[in-house]
Amino acid sequence: MIDWDDIRYFLAVARGGSVRAAAEGLGVYHSTVLRRIAQLEEHLGAQMFEKLPSGYRLTAAGEEVLELANQMEASSHQLETRVFGRDQSVRGLLRVTLAPTLATHLLMPDLADFARQHPDIEMDIVSSGELANLTNREADIAIRVVYDRKTLPLNLHALKGPELFSGVYMSRDRLAAWRAGAPDPIRWIVISMFGVPDWASEGEVRTTGVPFRTTDGEAQIVAVRQGLGMTTLPCFVGDADPLLVRVPGTDLHMHGTLWLLTQGETRKTKRVRLFTEFVSGRLAAYAPLLAGLSISRD
User: Fold this and answer.
1) Burial 132-151 (b: 16+ CB within 10 A, else e)
2) Does residue 139 contact residue 132 with C-beta atoms inside 8 Å?
3) What is the pTM for the complete model shown?
């Protein structure tokens, strides 16, 4: 009989295109992946991959196995979610995925409150920019910023939360220096993969230097605190930071809508329902902060 774990390793190599990618995705050693693939090939009596300079390519036999392996994986996930959906205990593992900024600057105190209220629930918080696949049980609940409702996966249950707005911010000290006539250049601070949005280019303060780029949101926030220039931030980040202030003359812009996403049978479990009700209530209370209405504009 074929070992399902061997199939998992096979799928990881087929999808990642290399043993290294598969090992990183599975969190195992390179040698473990090679051993599992060799074990599967020995069991089936056929070579699954052709090793090329560019990576691993499926053989004809491997292509046939891939189709069946995908079916096996789908059946395994379906069985798992149905059994999980019948579990009504307030204990066990609960995996929640959300963007790092939401976890760090908004919801971590609430996640901690929920954990204290339910000490038998093991919390696994996946704060990442990557979109976890709820159908494959990579997470039980996703808290996502969605820009277009039409992009919501049709196979997921979606609960709408508050709207999220962004503004243009700079450090209070840098704004005071600019008003006093300081000649230092003011830069746009941007995350590398994004440019400066058109809506953020109008205001009393104009940039005079070359851009300053970072690769993540936390570095972006630290850079603007240091007085390098100005940047766009969600209002719940910028307004809550005592070192930052909105740039005079700039408007707010709708960044998206927060949605709570759950999958099929999974959302029927008591711990998922408890968390969904809990966090949706907290998000509703944060609606003014998320919309940029919690402070007076400087």
Assistant:
1) bebbebebbbbbbbbeeeee
2) yes
3) 0.66
- Give CATH for domain 165-254: 3.40.190.10
DSSP assigned state of 268: G
In residues, how long is the chain?
A: 298
Per-residue pLDDT of the chain (298 residues; tens, 9 = 90+): 667 778 888 888 988 888 888 888 777 788 888 988 898 888 888 898 998 888 888 999 888 888 888 887 776 666 555 555 444 556 888 999 999 999 999 999 999 999 999 999 999 998 877 777 776 678 889 899 988 888 877 778 888 999 999 999 999 999 999 999 888 888 889 886 666 766 666 678 888 778 898 988 899 999 999 999 999 999 999 999 999 999 998 889 998 999 998 887 776 788 888 999 999 999 999 999 999 987 544 4
Give me the residue spans of the domains in the chain. Answer: 4-85, 92-162+256-287, 165-254
CATH number assigned to the domain covering 4-85? 1.10.10.10
CATH topology of domain 92-162+256-287: D-Maltodextrin-Binding Protein; domain 2 (3.40.190)
129 contact partners, CB below 8 Å, separation of at least 6:
99, 100
Three-state SS string over 193-218 comes to CCCCCHHHCCCCCCCCCCCEEECCHH
